[in-house]
């Protein structure tokens, strides 16, 4: 059953990545906005002539976590809370006994149909016209509904501000003409960000070139993620059937932050 | 098939704390007991009056405490006014934030009307009780039955809004497949009625009212809603059994891979069946044996409350432990502070305080559907009861 399910999802992943790209390539403005309950409110702010997206070339990622660290510093996230992180897997081929590692950088997908946005009771989280999903931390009441609504664990309640926090594609840096911290620091050049409405941008060219090979995470949720993975194994597009390794990573004051490999 | 080991994953905390369980529990007991108070206090069925009096105190006390728990679950509680400053129609939570205060007002209005005749009768009492009764009853005018019924109807309508929004709020969350099913809202309602009926059984005992009619009626309510809950669970299961994704698939996966989910599922199933079987047992005993057995029905009431609360704990807390993006389950020890144990105990304490305050200052045992002649309410309430004697009871 799992094999069936996985390959089904893999196909969905491809189809859905393709489908998400259609409105962008034709430069049509996104028309998902509707008024009903749990439907997307109108986008506001941001440059309507742009649509930011990211392509992550997994073949280039070495799992160094430089992106994790630089993001952590740039955005002053509290210890143990991350706007981006790189999941690392060890894959064991049961017949040949071969071992391989798999790295999966994760961040907010700035979904075209973001489930985190309509749930916000005070419209503190919203999607800009350039596609970036942001949180107005002065308005956020910290109800954490959006944290539960994001299928990708991309959001968290910032311990310090007690409001919702997430990746913004480093909107403050983009505005200043800089690259996001994770892209800037990426050792392998695996993370490519850009305006997908500009046909000449690097990301547009790469998307055109690799259109059929691109995949997104959890396509069956119909969130239309705009972080595209190249060199992805479809089995990792959903929650992996994996055994977590239970040794805890502790912060200096003994707080558990994560799990680490031990064997 | 390959086997995979996840080497490094951050620790994702739960986003909603036990406060949320308390809110969902209190508000469900509140709307369900409102409906159990309705037959007598809205539709004038005198045989339900003892039940209605118990149901009303259950309803008012939980309605008062629920919003406190809700507020406490916000990480920025002082910004609650943002809900109204930035209200919108696309968020179920925003819709809820409008319905909830209206519901609260309607329940308080309804209870005030139902308690008013007894408060008026107490106006001349000595000491603080008399003062409070004088102040609360606001004059000695009549309380028309129609008005009580009307306000009751409004409260019932608003309570449907609460049932809808609390259920939908969870059911639309695609990110949590276990919530993302249309069977969750009706299950929340059914388990809410189970908990409310249980609470009324317990209140019937601890208030020493021990009305046998109320016990029998609540046993029938338990019977009906246990059966309904079973049907809903079965439909949910059959509905999703063959799907590769979705709520049932996620549940089966959880049960398959997690021992704690296995024992939770087992516990829930067994308790439900045991509760149902005991209720059937009690209701099928001979008329001579029933009084002795009914004296113990409050124990079933405790089990029913436990079911209603546990269901919400599993749905709201345990489901948040299922990792969405990484492997396995996140473990969350309930912290001792206000976001954990203290919060749970605190809300129950507050609730107890609310019940005690009502017990101290409000003659809730004499609640009734209005009165024409102030002061004569005792007689007025007794007359139809006498007339009803010998009539078949529609428990
Ligand atoms: S990844 Fe999560 S937080 Fe980001 S836009 Fe999509 S649903 Fe929202
Ligand atoms: S936590 Fe803040 S941003 Fe998220 S839904 Fe609640 S109010 Fe909106
Ligand atoms: S910095 Fe680049 S290479 Fe290093 S883990 Fe992040 S995405 Fe991979």
From TrEMBL, chain A:
Q: Name one GO molecular function term.
A: 4 iron, 4 sulfur cluster binding
Secretion signal span: 1-35
Task: List keywords of the entry alphabetically.
Answer: 4Fe-4S, Iron, Iron-sulfur, Metal-binding, Signal
User: Is this entry keyworded Iron-sulfur?
Assistant: yes
Q: Which Pfam families match?
A: Fer4_11
Give residue ranges for domain 4Fe-4S ferredoxin-type: 52-82, 131-160
Highest taxon above the source species: Bacteria
Name the CDD domains for this protein: PsrB
Question: What InterPro entries does the entry give?
Answer: 4Fe4S_Fe-S-bd, 4Fe4S_Fe_S_CS, DsrO-like, ET_IronSulfur_Cluster-Binding, TAT_signal
Q: Which PROSITE patterns match?
A: 4FE4S_FER_1 (PS00198), 4FE4S_FER_2 (PS51379), TAT (PS51318)
> SUPFAM superfamilies of this UniProt entry?
4Fe-4S ferredoxins
Name the PANTHER family for this protein.
PROTEIN NRFC
Name assigned to this protein: 4Fe-4S dicluster domain-containing protein
Q: Lineage in the entry?
A: Bacteria, Pseudomonadati, Pseudomonadota, Gammaproteobacteria, Oceanospirillales
TrEMBL record, chain B:
Instruction: Note the topology in the membrane.
Output: Multi-pass membrane protein
Q: What is this protein called?
A: NrfD/PsrC family molybdoenzyme membrane anchor subunit
| Annotated stretches, region: Disordered | 372-395
Organism superkingdom: Bacteria
Q: Which Gene3D superfamilies match?
A: Formate dehydrogenase/DMSO reductase domain
The similarity comment for this entry is: Belongs to the NrfD family.
InterPro entries referenced in this protein's UniProt entry, alphabetically: Electron_transfer_protein (IPR052049), NrfD-like (IPR005614)
In the UniProt record, does the keyword Transmembrane helix occur?
A: yes
Question: Chief subcellular site?
Answer: membrane
> Which Pfam families does the record associate with it?
NrfD
Cellular compartments annotated:
Cell membrane
Tell me the keywords, alphabetical order: Cell membrane, Membrane, Transmembrane, Transmembrane helix
Membrane-spanning parts: 20-42, 54-72, 92-115, 146-167, 187-206, 218-238, 265-283, 295-316, 336-362
């Amino acid at each position: 059953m799992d094999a069936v399910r996985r390959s089904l999802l893999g196909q969905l992943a491809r189809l859905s990545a393709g489908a998400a790209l259609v409105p962008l390539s034709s430069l049509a403005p996104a028309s998902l906005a509707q008024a009903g309950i749990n439907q997307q409110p109108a986008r506001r702010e941001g440059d309507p002539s742009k649509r930011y997206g990211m392509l992550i070339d997994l073949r280039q990622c070495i799992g160094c976590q430089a992106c994790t660290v630089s993001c952590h510093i740039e955005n002053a996230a509290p210890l143990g809370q991350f706007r981006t992180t790189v999941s690392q897997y060890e894959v064991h081929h049961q017949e040949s006994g071969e071992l391989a590692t798999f790295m999966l950088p994760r961040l907010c997908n700035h979904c075209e149909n973001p489930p985190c946005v309509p749930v916000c009771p005070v419209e503190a989280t919203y999607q800009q016209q350039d596609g970036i999903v942001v949180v107005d931390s002065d308005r956020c009441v910290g109800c954490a509904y959006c944290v539960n609504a994001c299928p990708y664990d991309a959001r968290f309640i910032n311990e310090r501000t007690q409001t919702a926090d997430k990746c913004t594609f480093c909107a403050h840096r983009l505005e200043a003409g800089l690259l996001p911290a994770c892209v800037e620091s990426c050792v392998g050049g695996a993370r490519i960000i850009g305006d997908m409405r500009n046909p000449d941008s690097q990301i547009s060219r790469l998307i055109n070139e690799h259109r059929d090979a691109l995949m997104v995470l959890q396509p069956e949720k119909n969130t239309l993620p705009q972080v595209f993975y190249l060199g992805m194994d479809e089995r990792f597009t959903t929650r992996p059937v994996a055994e977590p390794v239970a040794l805890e990573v502790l912060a200096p004051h003994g707080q558990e932050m994560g799990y680490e490999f031990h064997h | 098939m390959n086997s995979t080991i996840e080497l490094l994953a951050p620790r994702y905390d739960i986003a909603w704390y036990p406060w949320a369980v308390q809110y969902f529990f209190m508000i469900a007991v509140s709307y369900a007991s409102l409906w159990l108070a309705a037959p007598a206090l809205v539709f004038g069925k005198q045989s339900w009056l003892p039940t209605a009096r118990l149901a009303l105190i259950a309803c008012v006390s939980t309605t008062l405490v629920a919003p406190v728990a809700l507020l406490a679950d916000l990480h920025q509680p002082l910004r609650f006014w943002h809900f109204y400053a930035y209200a919108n129609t696309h968020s179920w939570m925003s819709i809820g934030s409008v319905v909830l205060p209206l519901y609260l007002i309607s329940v308080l209005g309804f209870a005030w009307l139902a308690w008013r005749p007894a408060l008026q009768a107490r106006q001349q009492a000595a000491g603080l009780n008399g003062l409070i009764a004088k102040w609360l009853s606001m004059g000695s005018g009549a309380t028309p039955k129609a008005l009580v019924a009307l306000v009751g109807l409004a409260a019932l309508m608003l309570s449907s809004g609460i049932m809808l929004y609390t259920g939908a709020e969870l059911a639309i969350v695609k990110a949590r497949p276990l919530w993302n099913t249309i069977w969750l809202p009706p299950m929340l309602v059914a388990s809410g009625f189970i908990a409310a009926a249980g609470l009324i059984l317990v209140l019937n005992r601890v208030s020493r009212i021990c009305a046998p009619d109320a016990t029998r009626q609540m046993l029938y309510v338990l019977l009906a809603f246990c059966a309904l809950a079973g049907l809903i669970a079965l439909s949910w299961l059959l509905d999703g059994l063959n799907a590769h994704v979705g709520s049932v698939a996620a549940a089966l996966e959880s049960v398959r891979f997690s021992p704690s989910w296995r024992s939770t599922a087992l516990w829930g199933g067994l308790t439900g069946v045991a509760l149902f079987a005991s209720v059937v047992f009690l209701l099928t005993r001979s008329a001579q044996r029933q009084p002795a057995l009914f004296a113990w029905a409050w124990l079933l009431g405790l089990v029913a409350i436990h079911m209603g609360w546990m269901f919400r704990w599993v749905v709201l807390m345990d489901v948040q432990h299922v990792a969405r993006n990484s492997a396995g389950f996140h473990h969350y020890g309930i912290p001792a502070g206000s976001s954990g144990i203290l919060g749970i105990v605190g809300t129950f304490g507050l609730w107890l305080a609310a019940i005690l305050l009502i017990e101290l200052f409000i003659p809730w045992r004499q609640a009734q559907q209005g009165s024409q002649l102030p002061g004569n309410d005792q007689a007025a309430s007794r007359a139809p009861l006498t007339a009803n004697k010998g009539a078949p009871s529609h428990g």
